[in-house]
Amino acid sequence: MATNHLVLSGTITRSRSFKSPAGIAHSVIMLEHKSQCYEAEMLRNVYCQMQVIFSGERFESVTEQLKSGVDIEVQGFIALQQSRNGQNRLVLHAENVELKT
């Protein structure tokens, strides 16, 4: 069986919430991650931004707290998403979230 599990922490830079036509609540944020990691015995600055999607009732209690400037740690799986302009990107689908601030 293949493994698809990612844990990423960072600061929310954008957020929006909406309901799908089926009535499912979704929150979409942009998570900005900055850290330092060792690679080949050298310290490297790491930076990335990743879109994170929170879907369903289980996240409705934290939706109001998922605002710009909030630090969080998210666990979930990544999937390929195609934007309206046809560009592909990896998106993190949250399975668990922990507020850090």
From TrEMBL:
Keyword Endoplasmic reticulum: no
Alphabetized GO MF terms: single-stranded DNA binding
Any Pfam family: SSB_1
GO terms, biological process: DNA replication, synthesis of primer
Family: Belongs to the PriB family.
Subunit structure: Homodimer. Interacts with PriA and DnaT. Component of the replication restart primosome. Primosome assembly occurs via a 'hand-off' mechanism. PriA binds to replication forks, subsequently PriB then DnaT bind; DnaT then displaces ssDNA to generate the helicase loading substrate.
Name listed for the protein in its UniProt record: Replication restart protein PriB
Species the sequence originates in: Shewanella atlantica
Gene: priB
